[in-house]
Amino acid sequence: MTRAVLEIRTSPHIVSGNSVVSIMFNVVLALIPVSVFAVYAFGFTALATLATALASCVATEHLLCRTASKDTTVGDWSAVITGLLYGLTLPPGLPLWMVAAGGFIAIAVGKYLFGGLGYNVFNPALVGRAILQATFPVPMTTWVDAFRPDRFTTIVSSSLTPPLSRPQPIADVVSGATPLSAWKFDEELARAGDLVMGYTSGSTGETCAVLILIGGAWLVARKMMNWRIPAAIFATVIAFSGVFWLIDSQTYPSPVFMLFSGGLMLGAVFMATDMVGSPMTGLGCVIYGAAIGALIVVIRLWGSMPEGVMYAILLGNALSPHIDAMLRPRVYGTRPESAPKADRGKEAT
Amino acid sequence: MSWFGTKTFSHGVHPPESKDATCGLPIRQFPFAPVLVVPLSQHLGKPALPVVAEGEEVIRGQRIGRPDGTMSVAMHAPVSGLIKKIGLTPSIQGKMVPGVYIEPFPASTQEVAEGSPCDVDSASPDEILAAIQEAGVVGLGGAAFPTHIKLRVPEGKHIDTVIVNGVECEPYLTTDHRVMLEQREDIFQGIRYILRATRAEQVIIGVEANKADAADGLRAIVPDDIPVRVEVVQVKYPQGAEKMLITALLGREVPSRGLPVDVHAMCINVATTAEIGRLLPHGRGIQERVITISGPAIGDKGNYRIPIGTPLRFILDTVGVSDALGRVFMGGPMMGPAASSLDIAIVKGTSGVVAFTTEETRKTSRQKEYPCIRCAYCVDACPLYLNPSQLGLLAKNHEYDRMAAEFNLMDCFECGSCSFVCPSHIPLVQQFRVAKAAVRKARAAR
Fold first, then answer.
1. Tens digits of per-residue pLDDT, B67-79?
2. How far apart are the CA of A280 and the nearest CA of chain B, in angstroms?
3. Which CATH code fits A21-326?
4. pTM of this prediction?
5. Alpha carbon of A339 to those of A23, A255, A328, B210, B439: distances in Å?
6. Which residues in chain B are closer than 8 Å to A75, comparing Cβ atoms?
């Protein structure tokens, strides 16, 4: 006679195998080529920046969990993503103590103050970066040339500035203006090929568009990224900046330059697509992407800063819940005009 | 909704089909258990009233329960034997329900008693519906809704299309598949009764593409005298839900909280149709049904014609079961309720018995729950375009009224697609069941 301890659980009894851990881990995988290229382009300086950012974010996450007497959430890989992304957006020669402080802010303020994973309205990596940008505007816009011959033998001296002190304006930080600042302040345009392949200076991980796109394609293929968001950003940037370029190509940069310069690729592919901060419907994602794309162009063309991706995405994050609230899909079997209101009337009677 | 020439609805999920083990196995007759327990409440509505007493001898197919009012159906003896007692028996819903305990006669030939036949050409629609109620027919797809109520077209309404549901989108289950291969004549005979009872203009048999052999077989013998055709739909869960199938085949949307008749359609399970065609010409009642016995813990997997009232324990003993048996559920893995006891008996609505070993159950019971990361997998899965993520957040705060009033909670038919895809392993559909029950209770109290 069959005897068994039966487990009772409500259906469904099977699961798809999707998991938060695997999604996050795949994002980390997708970021590896970008990170490796960053080290290749900027040498030990980038390695130190990335390692410090990563360590700071992961340690902050772990310590905050311990402080709250909760199980550590480091294992879900989300702090690793934040750490990597945050590191990739920083200028390679940023003093490491600033890198560490920003990493703490990214996790503590950007993530845990809002309630942790799933509740972080704003992209934590960008929160950390935004606060650094406001606090240390000069170091945050001091750029190192890519492919310096001594990049694998020395670390840029500004990186090693003692904690709580500002870096000295030193000779070895060759002021490698980014293509965007070169355009904005010196009216000089970089070559498109250099931008796509990453032979320019800029933030640690924003320079190689090809590798960023490969990482994005990997995530899209695994259905772990909504392709509509980067697609909408690209399309809007091309269309919006294209109009002005056609009107006056002397004053305004070409759409190709706009697309491949600065943090646009990294931001559009890896940061605007953060599931927590982006809308849940297809149309919502298109609108969200278009809003970010438009903001990028506005800030770049008419703002006082050369780069606008960070603020555009943070503003997009703020819009996202409202987009979802306004664009609720029509529920099966309901008429568009009578859906929620008529329903509420029905409940009352 | 059409895609590569095959119809379907939008959204939905693709769970592994797991049908290969049994879809090629012909239906086999299952032996009689030493004691069969026929619950008097196997359907939605009022339980049948027993018309037999303890100690009485019954013949297989004899009526042992009469319908109690309109929303009820008759019950028939699954076996010739002696009524040991009429008492409480556990049910899959968890409640104890009244049931008739029958001990089979060992030496009986188990011949089935015949009743008064219902002739398809001369019977009136009302006579057909009465015969269906008397035959104890309920929806065999799992819902167990009394079929004579379902087929009754309300006053002032009309239907143009009857959809015979041969989709069987639940993983593991292959009963409808086998019935479509082996009882083709019964299906078409059943359609004749249904056409007469509903005065519909046409019948579409909807079959999922993974049962192409069944669709071809039916097409090969479509009779000339009835307006019926076979259509193949894409393989997708939950296409067997009547709303989804009506949308897939007719492009019509059943209104929220409405019925298929509101869009002039009706949907009936293919096995139910076959039973109507098999039973009514002989005036018999349902005393057995085809059930898929499958799952990794089962030894002799297959499709069996099993007497109603056969306890799960006898079934598992007969087919053999793994030592590491972890969970048994009735129906498919997406919607089937888990059995809390092996004394629960097979009822008319049982389309399958699937048993998992502890290895499979671990995959769902040992999952760590993460916060919702708004990945929108559930939003893209929900066939009704609900927002399970939002509903789940509200359910955590017990905001049940708001879920119903603003987010259409009561439309959810608990297909489980959201829980299936959720990477955070949030028990979404489980929370919605609790929420729906709370809302219903609150409304009833008002």
1. 999 999 999 999 9
2. 5
3. 1.10.3430
4. 0.91
5. 34, 42, 11, 36, 19
6. none
